[in-house]
Amino acid sequence: MIELASITKKYRVGKQYVEAISGVDLTVRKGEIFGIIGHSGAGKSTLLRCVNLLERPTSGSVKVAGVELTKLNDRQLQQERRKIGMIFQHFNLLSMATVRENIAFPLKLAKLPKAEVASRVNELLQLVGLEQHGDKYPAQLSGGQKQRVGIARALANNPDVLLCDEATSALDPQTTSAILALLLDINQKLGITILLITHEMQVIRSICDRVAVIDGGTIVEMGDVIDVFLKPQHPVTQDFVDEAAESQSDMRQLLSARQGRIFRVHYVGHVTYEPVLYNAVKASGVKVAILQGTISRMKQTPYGELIVEFIGESAEIDGILAQLRQDGLNVEELT
Ligand SMILES: Nc1ncnc2c1ncn2[C@@H]1O[C@H](COP(=O)(O)OP(=O)(O)OP(=O)(O)O)[C@@H](O)[C@H]1O
């Protein structure tokens, strides 16, 4: 649905050029939710804005639904942009217009007849759960409600793609969860492809299928969310994973005080809720202590990550490890 090839974006700052994006290739499949995560200044906004040419790349190709956007004239580009909705961190609503008028705005630009505008706006209000708020002004709404208006407006012209620029960064955790649930619902109900940028792991973990990690204007790691976050390869990815877990130094302190052999065990899918650890140790004389653990879900897939200590004969412990690996668990020794 989205194909970026060799995208480079340079900004001119005085007499110098700053390269914000350097040779990025990225493909987003139809119907998926794809997240781009990176620290501040990594190039997320610039890259996202290259997709609908709000920023024109210095070089490279931008295809959306098979159409090369960089080659279009202004009128053609305006037409193609109707297929690409966008929502923003600070909502970008018209403050002097009501919720209805904000949502109707892109429909009026597309010259839809008045009666159709009214009925489409009603549909959209219902989709985002704002039926009761159509005649209010943005200042009378909460942050979460404002973002719902932003989402309704972005969906007005039935786009194929929704671009989300830090859509939940200005919201509290509870409202963030509600907006993410709405995005997931829209993706599943309407089949819209979503490309989002964020600096929050939680956003990626709860709704994305695939993720790219961006640093210094290049993509340093990309893949299925589960693979990237359970086996991070690049230091920046590792940073994001560590931010969400206990700090490295706390972990080192914990490990240094232990006597046994220590392992990180992770597992994905149905095995998460099975007594695999118990089954592997029950017939042996080995004792097991869980030092740290998370059992959670990435999108709809359950996963677990445990730090465990095995106390006992080394040969017996090796046997347990073999059993765990045979059961499909990923085991890595930390001692
Ligand atoms: N209009 C501009 N003129 C000059 N430099 C710019 C411009 N926009 C962005 N940059 C530079 O490009 C780099 C990438 O910026 P960008 O806003 O894309 O990063 P980001 O990852 O979205 O950061 P944040 O999360 O803080 O918004 C930064 O070094 C930034 O200073």
TrEMBL record:
Matches recorded under InterPro entries: AAA+_ATPase, ABC_transporter-like_ATP-bd, ABC_transporter-like_CS, ACT-like_dom_sf, MetN_ABC, MetN_ABC_transporter-like, NIL_domain, P-loop_NTPase
Keyword Phosphoprotein: no
Gene3D superfamilies: 3.30.70.260, P-loop containing nucleotide triphosphate hydrolases
Keywords for the protein's UniProt record, in alphabetical order: Amino-acid transport, ATP-binding, Cell membrane, Membrane, Nucleotide-binding, Translocase, Transport
UniProt-listed SUPFAM superfamilies: ACT-like, P-loop containing nucleoside triphosphate hydrolases
Listed Pfam families: ABC_tran (PF00005), NIL (PF09383)
Transmembrane stretches, start-end: none
GO function term, MF aspect, one: ATP binding
Coiled-coil regions, chain positions: none
Domain ABC transporter: 2-241
Record-linked PANTHER family: AMINO ACID IMPORT ATP-BINDING PROTEIN, METHIONINE IMPORT ATP-BINDING PROTEIN METN
Protein name (database record): Methionine ABC transporter ATP-binding protein
